[in-house]
Specification:
By secondary structure, the chain is an alpha/beta fold. It has 9 helices and 8 strands. The protein is 38% helix and 13% strand.
């Protein structure tokens, strides 16, 4: 059995979004399911530390960081129509980004084989200069830049299977050949990006691969297309694999129109773990993004972690 780290902190519940789809109950439901299924005790607890400003500034502009900090300090409730904040949100977001960073450190240094970051707020819509889509800072991008800066990695693969295209992650690495970004998502859906023609820019051309899926695509089609895309990404020979693990492509999720089940998520997890084992001794960190039906989310995360353990 693999040693799998679990990043979690009760402070993640303090990002108060009220009755918003991205709410604290998501993490509570996941923890309850992991304990119910006997998975929680098999995991290695990783207590996150807050990201430092220098970690954020490898990805985000100073103006962006200052704006989030000030909005939370002033008690503002909305950064945009979708993105809710509370006075605690800036500090919680630092802890989310820091959790992803620490998970990578633990894997690189051999304390765990893989890790799952049970964090919020999510990150993959946050661009260098804009919070959007429930996201304040881009956790997965911050983790990738940390791996590059701290461990001199030159080939990092980011796999994003959230229902929604990770426009922020794509934008941050669009001209960067050292990070391969693969997104499999519902096409013609928020945030209305991630078309097949988007393949990178300049030196980064060919290092972005988008797989937009038609609404109501069946599970077998989704798994097959994901597998084909991963085989293309395997030629990149990544030294580390990061997963933006959204679970809102589940057939019961209220925010989308895809058809995955927890068994489908297990298959996606098996495919990406196989690539990591073949390419980089299994070095993989996944980070929670979307997923808004509590029961489906919890079951899908449990299925993902079951695969990580084996």
């Amino acid at each position: 059995m693999a040693r799998v780290g679990l990043v979690y902190h009760p402070r993640y519940l303090d990002h108060d979004t009220g009755e918003h789809p991205e709410r604290a109950q998501r993490l509570i439901a996941i923890l309850a399911r992991l304990k119910q299924d006997g998975l929680y005790d098999k995991l290695v607890a990783i207590e996150p530390e807050a990201a430092r400003e220098e970690d954020l500034l490898r990805v985000h502009t100073q103006e962006h960081v200052d704006a989030i900090k000030e909005a939370c300090r002033r008690g503002e409730e909305f950064l945009d129509v979708d993105t809710v904040i509370s006075p605690e949100s800036f500090d919680v977001a630092l802890l989310a980004a820091g959790g992803a960073k620490l998970a990578c450190q633990k894997v690189i240094e051999g304390e765990v084989d893989r890790a799952f970051c049970l964090v919020r707020p999510p990150g993959h819509h946050a661009t260098a200069s804009r919070a959007m889509g429930f996201c304040l800072f881009n956790n997965i991008a911050i983790a990738a830049r940390f791996l590059q800066q701290q461990y001199n990695l030159s080939r990092i693969l980011i796999v994003d299977w959230d229902l929604h295209h990770g426009n922020g992650t794509q934008d941050i690495f669009y001209d960067d050949p050292s990070v391969f970004y693969l997104s499999c998502h519902q096409g013609n859906h928020y945030p209305f990006s991630g078309y097949e023609r988007e393949k990178g820019r300049g030196k980064g051309e060919g290092f972005t691969l988008n797989v937009p899926l038609a609404a109501f695509s069946n599970e077998r089609t989704i798994v097959d297309l994901f597998g084909q895309a991963l085989r293309k990404a395997a030629a990149f020979k990544p030294q580390f694999v990061l997963v933006s693990a959204g679970f809102d492509a589940h057939r019961l999720d209220p925010l989308g129109n895809l058809t995955l089940t927890e068994a489908g998520y297990a298959k996606l997890s098996q495919l990406v773990c196989h690539l990591a084992k073949q390419s980089c001794q299994g070095k993989l960190v996944s980070c929670l993004e979307g997923g808004y039906n509590l029961e489906a989310l919890a079951a899908s995360v449990a299925a993902h972690i079951e695969v990580l353990l084996h």
